[in-house]
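Ticket #4471: complex job returned nothing on first submit. Input attached below:
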Amino acid sequence: MSSNPLIVMAENKESMVATPLRAPLGRKMAFAKSLAATVRMNPLGVLSAILVVLTIFAAIGAGVLSPQDPNAVNVRERLSAPGVRSYLLGSDELGRDILSRVLYGARISLLISISAVGLGCSVGATIGVLSAYFGGMIDSVAQRVLDGFMAFPMLILAISVVGVFGASTQNVILAVMITLIPQANRVIRAIALSVKETEYTQAARALGCTPLHILTWHIVPQCVSPLLVIATSSMGWAIIAEASLSFLGVGIPPPTATWGGMLSGAAQKYSESAPWLVIFPGFAIALCVFAFNMLGDAVRDWLDPRIRNV
Amino acid sequence: MCLACWRERRMSTYIVRRLLLIIPTVVLVSVLIFSLMRILPGDVAEVILGGPEGGGTYSSQDIRDVHQRLGLDKPLPEQYLSWVSGLLTGNMGTSLVSREPVMEVLAKSVPVTAELAVLTIVLSLCIAIPVGLISAMYRNTWADYIFRSVAVAGLALPTFWTGSLVILFITLALRWMPPIGFTSFWDDPLANIQQMLLPALVQAYFYAAIVSRMTRSSALEVLRQDYVRTAYAKGLHQRLIISRHVLKNAFFPVLTITGYQFGQLLGGTVIAETLFSLPGIGRAWVGAVLTRDYPIVQTVVVLMALSFLFVNLVVDLLYGWLDPRIRLNV
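Support reply: We reran it on our side without changes. The output follows.
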C-alpha cells in the first residue's frame, strides 16, 4: 500500500524534466510572484500548508497543550466517553487521556516521517546523482542493488528491517527510510542523466571544470525542485508506514503513544463499546496524511509551471 | 522472413532475455534477506527453548544443541547454499519453530492472500476506471469534484482505519458479523465471499483512489488529441469514441500502476489480514519474522519478489501486445 511518489510522478511525467530557466525577471522576484500566484490559484494548497503547520505546532507543543500525562493510568476512569469528566476525547482501556495521546502521537509520527523522508530522499538522490554522473560499474552495481530493494513490497521491506533490528525510534526511521531510497534514486538519476547530456554541462566539461564543480553547479541545482516534490509527496506514505508498523505491533513499543499503536489491540477489542478509541487516532492520521498529500500536489504545481493550467 | 514471424521471434528473444534478467535480481533479494535475517541479535534457539510463553530456562549447551540440530552452526555461505539449492529442488525446508514443512504453510496461506489480492485489484479497477473516465469527460462539473474529493480522501485513509470503521459500522449499525476465519471458496462460496468482500473492498478503496486519479489524468490527455476531435467532428457516437479511442489509449499508464500495485499488495494485505483475522501469507510471515523462523521468512520474501518481477514482466508484455507501436527493448 502506498501513496507512492513514483505514482504521483508518473501522473505528471513532464514535471520530472529539468525546469527551464525562468524569464528575465530576477530569481527572487519570480519566486515570490509564482508563490503568490499559487496561493491565489490554489486555496486548497494553502489550507493544507496551514494544517501541516498546525500539526507541527501540536507535535512540538504536545507537552504544553496536552491536558494530562499521555501515559498516566487511571483505571477507575477507563473507557470514559468523550466530554465526560475531564476527558475531551475520552479515555482508553487504561484510563489514559486520548487527546494527550493523540498530541504526543503527532510528535512521534512527524519525528519519524520527517527524518525518514529527509534521510531517505537525500541518500536516494545522492546515489542517483553519483550513479548517473559516473556511470559504468558504479552505476550498474548501485542500480542492481536498488532494483533488489524495489522487488520487495514496501511494507514487507520495512517490517523486515524493524523485525531484525528491533523496534526503536531509530530503527523505525531506518525502516521507513529504506523504502524511500530506491524511488528517490530512480527519479533523480533519470533527471541527472538528462542534465548530464545538456549542452551547458558539456560546455562546462569542455572548459575543464572538475566533476565536483559540474555536480554542484550544474546537475544538483536541477534536481532540487523534483526532490522537493518527491519529499513532500512521500510524507503521506511515511506517516502511513509508521502507523502501519505500530498497528502491526512491530513499531515503537508501548506505552509510547503512537497513532497506529492506539488503533491496535485494545482499541479493536473495545471498539463496539468505545468507538472513540478507533475514531480519533485514525482521524488524526487521515487529516495529517491528507494535508501532506495536498501540500505535495501544491508544491508540484508551484514548482512546475507547465502543468499548472492543465 | 515475413513481418509476423520476425515479430514473433523478436518477442521470444525478448521474453527469454527478460526472464534471464529476473535471475540476478532474485539472487540479490535472496542474499539481502538471508543476511538481514542473520545480522543482529535474537536467536531462534531462544524462541524454541523459551517455550510458547517464553521464560523457559536453558543453558548455553542447550542453545548449541539446537543450533547443531537445525544446522545453524555451519558457516553462513554453506547455510545459504543449502537453502538455495533446497529452493531450486523444490525442498523449502521446515519451519524452525513449528517443525511444519514450509510448503504446507504456504499451501494453506497463499490461496487466501492470492484471492484477496486478485479480488482487490479487480474491484479497484471496476470502480476506478469508470469513475476516472466520467471525471475526465465531465471535467470541472459537480460529478468530477465529488469523485476527485472521494479519491483524494481515499489516498489519506489508511486501510487499517477504514477497515476498523467498516467493522465498527457493521457490528454496531447492522448487528452482523462476517463469519470469523477463512473458508475456502470451493467448500462454501457464500461464506468465502462474506469473509473476503469486506477486506477486499477496504483495500480496493485505497487502490481505486490511485487508479482513478491516474485514469482521469491520462484520459484528459487523450481527450485533447486530434484524433478524438476528428472522431467527434465526423459525428461518431460518444460511446464509441470513449470505448474505442479514449479508453484504449488511456489504459497504458493504468496498466503500469496496476502491475506495480499488485506487487505491493502481495505484502500489503498483511494489514487487512490482521484486521479481518484472515490466515494469509502476510500474517504468517510477520509471525515468522518475530520468531526468527528463517526458512519461512526467506522463502516467502523470495517468492514475493519472484511474483513481483513476473507480474511486471507480464505487464510489459501486455503493453507490447496492446500497442504494436511499442518496441520491446531490453
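Chain B touches chain A through 60 residues (CB under 8 Å). Closing as resolved unless it happens again.
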